[in-house]
Every structure is written in structure tokens, then in C-alpha cells.
């Protein structure tokens, strides 16, 4: 990848779209539902005519298609532009905009209609609501968002270009306007965004009721990882990772309204419209609560989205010295701004509009990499030829895993694991620890264990004879399930074995054993080999919280082996920060306890021409197999990862040596190219390990190609 100049370039990729590409448009809406991007209406730049065309982009193939309603279905809504579009339960809710009028002398009118597109059936539906005192006035260039089962319409302008100072609430269940609230701010699509979370998060968001309650008991450290007292045993301390919660009609999600204006001397405002489901007229001003090392510049025609507990803000920055599309993130737990450095890709070309692909933790930016941003901005046009894809997980911004059961149920799972009365099977670790378990629980939660049990039951005599013969020859137990003794040898240390069993019994990571960085790395490796998607999601989330300068190298290697690119790039950023600190004469060990929660650093902008030692280290040779076992001929040598010591996660070899040998100089572009090449090698290594494990399992054996 010869174009790489910065580590930030690894977070952004450009995709060329094909198919029936929409023409350049002004004021069209763009919305993502599942894995499709919908572009509706707008005014064409070439003919200056408004349209009601609907285009759909498949986000897996990047192919555009134009949707034309069948003759026997409802027609598309009136042509319009600068309308709003919000997603609710697989439907796109459209409101207002500027359209054509048959009565106005100018031929234009502001619209006040509500309609929606069912993206499952691809059918249009229209609302005929009764006139009430709460009805929204006709408007265009307004803001909209969904909170619970309510559509929130904020601000906008009327046909005379006067700002409308009110917030209207539309009930999506009764299909009626139910609230109106005065709002003494001038908000519109040119300078403002309004957002509300589409999924809940256990991290208390600023201004929510849970945040007020949390402030009464001050939270220390990382809000994504908190200690809590055990419910069943008050002497035990457990961990609580942040998690995603489903949004219901009773969920009180505040609406965040952010505005920036006076672009020569930027003014920033943040209002919260709280509890739209129950308490009207609650607007709070938190403009002075925002902070950060650097603050966003004035962004024109911004878009906003909430992912996890961050609000992502994107828009066009035009100054005498810079014209480019920028991304920023506001941590909604403490209202601190950080910049999402997407590298040099967005510094050229015309990038016009950002949309969140929530399911994949990706931010999408529509544009054309060959056009001029300033020219297109002057025409207010959005291009659809190219798509820039930003991996937000590389900045620590993603959706946490969902909680599958209540804390009391998780602790009951631990109690069952600790109760030998419930056991009918035994797991033996490679250092001699025996764990009584229930085979039904393991079979239900661990598909590979179930497969081995079924194979061993079909070949009981053969398995027993093979085991006896091997034991006589080698005088040691092999990685084999023995149905008659109901024992399984698990070639991992007792700490990894226990942490793995605790996950199997609870479906969560909550104990102190599980929250050791080197244990989490092993759990992530096991999840990849045995296709345990839930464990992979939890271990990756936990490792994001464990990322420090002392753990970065180990987490980087593990993420590379398991294909967790976002975690890998974020760990690499921390490693590079440590490298630069060492070059400046600062000891990174002084910062070991400080976790880089957002994964971004302004130091990424500092040129670095030296070789990054961790990236060019040869992987250490594979450890020997247990005595009596040989590798299959079809599998080559399996390089071993950097392994944790008994005293904690290791430093890289170059950091642990007192006098490291000098390394040859290389350009950063060359080094990052080596990184991309190493990613491909690491994926091949992981595949080889999977093949090795499956081959040993074919005869009822289990070999994990990793040390404990």
C-alpha cells in the first residue's frame, strides 16, 4: 500500500461505487438501514429540478440501484429537497422539505407532511394526522431524530427563510403530533445537528437520569469497566464491562442539539431536550460544559450520530488555510471533544456528507476523490461516486456487546460452576488442576465440545484403546476426551482454563481472573479458533479497556492473529506514542497506569522516520508440542505469539533489553507497508493454527496450539 504516510491512513479506505450511481444532488437525504444506504429526493445540479428518485447502495458490494415503485403500489412522495429522514424499526420517516407549489407565484412551498418507507417490503406509506395545536409548521432545512417511539423535529426555516423557534414531537405509534416546545435558538441544517441514541448504553450519558444518579456516587477511572460488589457474596468484587441495552418506548433518551456558527470566531452550543416521552418543555443548556484539548472548528452542513457513548460530528471545514472534511467525537459521559484523525485521504478530493454504518462501527463519507471540495460546496452538491470508510473502532468508538442476562443470573452461573454436586464431567488443565463441570452446560454453550462428545460416544472402544496405548508409550495424558472416565484434557494453564469455564457458565466476563490482560489475550485466541463469536466480542471489548503502554505490544499481536483490525490499529497507536516518548527522552513507564481510552493522539501528526521495532521483529519460534505428539505434515511451522509471563504482560524484546542494538532507518511509508504485509502473514498463521486444531480434533483429540 504505497500511499500510506501516517498510521491514521490505516483507519480509512476508499471504495469506488458502481451501478446506477445517483447524479450530483443538492439537499438529498442519506440514511443507512442495516447494510443498505438510501438516498432520496434532492435537486439535481445539472437541471436544477427537484426529484423524488430513490437510490439504494448495497454496503457489501458498493453497487447502486434505483428503486421504482411497482405500478400497483403507492407512488413516491412529492419531489423535495432539504427534508429530513430518520430511521425507526426498519422504516425511514420523512418530514417536510421544500417542494413545488401549484398556488405560489414563485412555484415553491414548504412542506409539512409525514411519510415513511418500509425498507423490508419497499413500500411507501402516508400519514393523515388530525390538525391539533401541536402540529409542526411547514419548514425545510430542519433537524430530526428518533427518541423511543417519538419523532423529534427541531427548528428549520419557513418559506420566507425565517427560523422556526420550536421543537415538535410526533408519536410514531398513534401517528399524531403530541407536543410542541418553544426553543429560542436558530437551528438548521447549515449549522446544527440533533441526535439521540438508537441503542442504549450502560455508560451514563450526560443529562440522562442514569447520569444524574451516577454523579451522586462518583465514578472513578474508566466508565467502560467498573468494579462492583457481588450480589450473592458481599466479600467478592466483580467487574462490569459497559454493555448495550435495548431501547424501549419508555427509555428516556435525551436529544442532543449541537450548533456552531460565526465561523470566523466559532461559537459552539449544546442543548439537551430531555425526556421527550414524559416531560415537555425541558431544554437544558450545556454549552459551557464542553471541553477538550482542541475543539471542533466551524463545520458547515454538519451531520451527527451516536455510537456507543460518543456523538460523532462530521462536516466541511473551510478556512483560508484549510478546506477539508473533518470528523470529531464528543464523549457523552463527560462532554470532552477529540478529533478523529482519518489520515491524508480526506485532505484531497470532494467529500460532502457523512453517515454512520452502526452495525459495523464504520463511518461512511460520500464524495468524489477527483473533484474540488470548494467548487462543490459553492454549489451545495453531494457526490456519490466514491465512499470513504472510516473504522471508528480504531479510535475506541464502537457499540459495546449486549448483556444477555441480569447480574444475578451471571453470579448464579458462577455458583453452579463452583458446586461439584452439579458436575458429571471433569476438565484437566495442563498444570494438573481438575475442574468438575456439567457436560450439558458445556455442550449447550460450546459447540466444539458437543461435537467431540458425539464423536467420542460413537467410538468409545476405539478411543479407550488409543488412549491406553498412548499412555503406555508416553506415560503422559494427551489432549483427548475419554468418555468412560468422563475427563477432558484441556492443554491450557489453570488460570486460562478457569477463565474460559467462567465464560461458558455466565456468557460474560466478570471475574478478576478474566480481566488479566494476558488471560484476555488467550481468551480472544480461543474464541477465534473455536468460532465463539460472543467470547470474541467480549474479549475484544475488554482488551480495549486494558490497552496501556505496557500491554499494547501483546494486544497488538493477539489482535493481528485474530483479525481484530480496529483493536490492532489502536494498539499500534499506543506503541508509536511510546516510541515517540522514548525518542524525546521521556520514560513510558511513567505513563503505564494511564489508559488511552479514545485511542487517538495529536502526536500522529508528528513525522516519524524511524523504524518501529515491534513491527519488524521476527516472531519467535513455535513452542514444542506435548511429548508424544507430532505436527501434521500438511501444516507448516506455526510461529508463536509473544507470550505473557507469570508476572504480567511482556514488553517487546526491544523495550526489555538494556542496550538494544541500533536498527536501520526506514521511512514511515515503508514501515506501514511492512505492517500491511505482516497482517496478511498473521492471518495465514491463524488459519494454520485452526487447521492444526481441527486435525487433532478429528480423532476425538483437542490440541490448542498455544501455551497457557
UniProtKB/TrEMBL annotation:
Q: Which InterPro entries match?
A: Kelch-typ_b-propeller (IPR015915), SKP1/BTB/POZ_sf (IPR011333)
Q: Which stretches of sequence are listed as region Disordered?
A: 641-681
| Biological process terms in GO annotation | cell redox homeostasis
- Give the UniProt keywords, A-Z: Kelch repeat, Repeat
Q: What is this protein called?
A: BTB domain-containing protein
Annotated source species = Umbelopsis vinacea
Keyword Repeat assigned to the entry: answer is yes
Q: Name one GO cellular component term.
A: mitochondrion
Amino acid at each position: 500500500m504505497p500511499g500510506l504516510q501516517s498510521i491514521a491512513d490505516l483507519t480509512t479506505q476508499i471504495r469506488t461505487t458502481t451501478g446506477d450511481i445517483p447524479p450530483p444532488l443538492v439537499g438529498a437525504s442519506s440514511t443507512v438501514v442495516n447494510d443498505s444506504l438510501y438516498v432520496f429526493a434532492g435537486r439535481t445540479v445539472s437541471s436544477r429540478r427537484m426529484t423524488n428518485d430513490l437510490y439504494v447502495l448495497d454496503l457489501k458490494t458498493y453497487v447502486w440501484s434505483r428503486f421504482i415503485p411497482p405500478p400497483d403500489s403507492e407512488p413516491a412522495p412529492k419531489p423535495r429537497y432539504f427534508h429530513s429522514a430518520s430511521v425507526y424499526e426498519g422504516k425511514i420517516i420523512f418530514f417536510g422539505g421544500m417542494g413545488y407549489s401549484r398556488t405560489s407565484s414563485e412555484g415553491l412551498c414548504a412542506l409539512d407532511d409525514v411519510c415513511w418507507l418500509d425498507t423490508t417490503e419497499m413500500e411507501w406509506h402516508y400519514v393523515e394526522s388530525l390538525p391539533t395545536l401541536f402540529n409542526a409548521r411547514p419548514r425545510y432545512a430542519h433537524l430530526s431524530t428518533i427518541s423511543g417511539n417519538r419523532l423529534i423535529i427541531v427548528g428549520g426555516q419557513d418559506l420566507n427563510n425565517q427560523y422556526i423557534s420550536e421543537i415538535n414531537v410526533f408519536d410514531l405509534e398513534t401517528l399524531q403530533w403530541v407536543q410542541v416546545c418553544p426553543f429560542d435558538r436558530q437551528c438548521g441544517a447549515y449549522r446544527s445537528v440533533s441526535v439521540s441514541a438508537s441503542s442504549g448504553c450502560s455508560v451514563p450519558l450526560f443529562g440522562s437520569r442514569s447520569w444524574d444518579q451516577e454523579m451522586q456516587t462518583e465514578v472513578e477511572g474508566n466508565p467502560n469497566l467498573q468494579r462492583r460488589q457481588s450480589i450473592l457474596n458481599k466479600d467478592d468484587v466483580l467487574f462490569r464491562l459497559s454493555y448495550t441495552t435495548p431501547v424501549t418506548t419508555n427509555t428516556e433518551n435525551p436529544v442532543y442539539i449541537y450548533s456552531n456558527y460565526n465561523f470566523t470566531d466559532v461559537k459552539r452550543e449544546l442543548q439537551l431536550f430531555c425526556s421527550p416521552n414524559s416531560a415537555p418543555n425541558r431544554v437544558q443548556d450545556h454549552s459551557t460544559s464542553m471541553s477538550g484539548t482542541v475543539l471542533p472548528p466551524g463545520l458547515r452542513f454538519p451531520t451527527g450520530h451516536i455510537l456507543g457513548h460518543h456523538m460523532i460530528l462530521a462536516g466541511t471545514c473551510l478556512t483560508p488555510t484549510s478546506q477539508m472534511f473533518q470528523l470529531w467525537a464528543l464523549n457523552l459521559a463527560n462532554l470532552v471533544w477529540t478529533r478523529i484523525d482519518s489520515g491524508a485521504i480526506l485532505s484531497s478530493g470532494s467529500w460532502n456528507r457523512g453517515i454512520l454504518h452502526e452495525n459495523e462501527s464504520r463511518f461512511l463519507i460520500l464524495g468524489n476523490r477527483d473533484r474540488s471540495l470548494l467548487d462543490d460546496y459553492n454549489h451545495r452538491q453531494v457526490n456519490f461516486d466514491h465512499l470513504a470508510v472510516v473504522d471508528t473502532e480504531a479510535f475506541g468508538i464502537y457499540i459495546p456487546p449486549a448483556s444477555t442476562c441480569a447480574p444475578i443470573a451471571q453470579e448464579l452461573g458462577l455458583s453452579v460452576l463452583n458446586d461439584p454436586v452439579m458436575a458429571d464431567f471433569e476438565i484437566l488443565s495442563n498444570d494438573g488442576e481438575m475442574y468438575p463441570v456439567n457436560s450439558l452446560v458445556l455442550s449447550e454453550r460450546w459447540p466444539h465440545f458437543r461435537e467431540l462428545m458425539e464423536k467420542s460416544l460413537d467410538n468409545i472402544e476405539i478411543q479407550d484403546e488409543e488412549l491406553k496405548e498412548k499412555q503406555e508409550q508416553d506415560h503422559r495424558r494427551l489432549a483427548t476426551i475419554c468418555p468412560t472416565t468422563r475427563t477432558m484434557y484441556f492443554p491450557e494453564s489453570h488460570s486460562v482454563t478457569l477463565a474460559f469455564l467462567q465464560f461458558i457458565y455466565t456468557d460474560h466476563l466478570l471475574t478478576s481472573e478474566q480481566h488479566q490482560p494476558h488471560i484476555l489475550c488467550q481468551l480472544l485466541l480461543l474464541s477465534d479458533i473455536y468460532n465463539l463469536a460472543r467470547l470474541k466480542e467480549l474479549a475484544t471489548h475488554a482488551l480495549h479497556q486494558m490497552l496501556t503502554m505496557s500491554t499494547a505490544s501483546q494486544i497488538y499481536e493477539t489482535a493481528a492473529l485474530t483479525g481484530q483490525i480496529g483493536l490492532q490499529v489502536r494498539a499500534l497507536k499506543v506503541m508509536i506514542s511510546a516510541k515517540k516518548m522514548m525518542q524525546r527522552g521521556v520514560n513510558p513507564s511513567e505513563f503505564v497506569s494511564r489508559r488511552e481510552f479514545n485511542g487517538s493522539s495529536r502526536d500522529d501528526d508528528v513525522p516519524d522516520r524511524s523504524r518501529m521495532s515491534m513491527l519488524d521483529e521476527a516472531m519467535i519460534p513455535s513452542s514444542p508440542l506435548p511429548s508424544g505428539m507430532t505436527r501434521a505434515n500438511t501444516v507448516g511451522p506455526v510461529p508463536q505469539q509473544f507470550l505473557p509471563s507469570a508476572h504480567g504482560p511482556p514488553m517487546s524484546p526491544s523495550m526489555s533489553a538494556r542496550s538494544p542494538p541500533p536498527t536501520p532507518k526506514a521511512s514511515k511509508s515503508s514501515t506501514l507497508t511492512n505492517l500491511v504485509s505482516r497482517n496478511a502473514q498473521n492471518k495465514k498463521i491463524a488459519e494454520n493454527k485452526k487447521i492444526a486444531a481441527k486435525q487433532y480434533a478429528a480423532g476425538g483429540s483437542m490440541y490448542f496450539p498455544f501455551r497457557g
